[in-house]
Amino acid sequence: MLSWLHATGSIPLDRPRIVGIVNVTPDSFSDGGLFRNVDDARRQIDRLVEEGADVVDIGGESTRPQGAIEVTDDEEKARVLPVLEVALTDHPGVPVSIDTTKSAVARAALEMGASIVNDVSAFRLDAQMPTVCARGKAGVVLMHSRGGVTDMATFVHANYDGDVVGQCIAELEPSVVTAKEAGIARDSVVLDPGIGFSKRGEHSLAVLAGVNRFVALGFPVLVGVSRKRFIGEVTGTPIATERVWGTVGANVAALMGGARLFRVHDVRPNRHALDVAWAIMSKTA
Fold first, then answer.
1. Which of 130, 137, 152, 169 matches a 20 to 30 Å C-alpha distance to 100?
2. At what angle do helices 201-209 and 244-257 cross, to 10 degrees?
3. Residue 221 in 3-state DSSP?
4. CA separation (Å) from 81 to 5, 89, 104, 112, 261?
5. Where do the domains of the chain lie?
6. Which CATH class is domain 15-277?
7. Beta bridge partners of 191
8. What is the mean predicted confidence (pLDDT) over 238-252?
9. How big is the chain by its Cα radius of gyration, in Å?
10. Hey, which bits of the chain come out as E strands?
């Protein structure tokens, strides 16, 4: 059975696993400013776990499509570490992921007891990140993106020639090699196709349709479609928080393509839908 190794244990991928989002930022695209203090974040973590999240993912720097601003190491640590502390205290059995591109933030989080580093740059932006993750025995998420924090979720780098999936895979492969050379265990690596990052709507749809090609690389695949812009384009839903059902549909499609990890804001509807889809798939396998 496939499992995802991380700093505090492993997660068996014997069924769909949900990563619940906690953005402790003032400017994330759909929930910025909602969980800026520890008490608010604690209540959000409680809700995510109660609804069935297998992992809690804490982020302190927005990569929103419009006007994302890079923050300093110290500012990001000040945002995420107090929330990490309460997550570990309140839910000691739930692995915590730190969503960061900064090795200093990752190091501090791993030293406190975080299990996973979710790097949306796939090690491109901080040369020390692979070493920090290897030394901390972290599980890692390597996500496809282009550019830096301020523009990776825009269309500035959304230029593809023909095979979008093939280009994304080719651009992720050097990060996989870097992880191996740093000493990160193969079973600790998860790939994320980077839905919505440096991708227009048609690119995100093509990548979701080609999830099986990412799976064929031999690593577990995580998808992060939650409330994304392409869902709004397909459904005619301009308000991000109203894209829950479109998110559910995209996640079920990704599950059928072989994805096993799903990063979401709204745990309960996705938990129910993915569990039912999985029960059906298990009977027909």
1. 169
2. 40
3. strand
4. 22, 12, 12, 8, 24
5. 15-277
6. alpha beta
7. 142, 221
8. 96
9. 17
10. 3-6, 9-12, 17-23, 55-59, 96-99, 116-119, 139-143, 189-192, 222-223, 261-264
Q: Which amino acid is at 194?
A: G
Query: Is 263 considered catalytic here?
Result: yes
Q: From the candidates 229, 260, 263, 271, which is the catalytic residue?
A: 263
Residue 228 a catalytic site member: yes
Structure confidence at residue 212 (pLDDT): 98
Enter the tokens of residue 164.
Answer: 């979008």
Residues 6+ apart with CB under 8 A from 23: 31, 32, 34, 35, 59, 62
- pLDDT, tens digit, 9 for 90 and up, residues 35-67: 567 888 899 999 999 999 999 999 998 766 656
- pLDDT at site 279: 97
Among 271, 213, 211, which Cα is nearest to 16's?
A: 271
Predicted local distance difference test score (pLDDT) of residue 115: 98
Structure tokens at 86: 């309460």
Tokens of 36: 């800026």
Whole-number pLDDT of residue 17: 98
Question: Token digits for 67?
Answer: 């006007």
Q: Which of 213, 228, 243, 260 is catalytic?
A: 228
d(CA 7, CA 138): 5
**How many beta carbons lie within 10 A of that of residue 212, not counting itself?**
14
The answer to whether 170 and 212 have CB atoms below 8 angstroms apart is: no
Burial of 192 (0-12, 13-18, 19+ CB in 10 A): buried
Residue 176: both structure tokens together: 């996989």
Distance (Å, whole) CA 150 – CA 31: 18
CA distance 135 to 217: 25
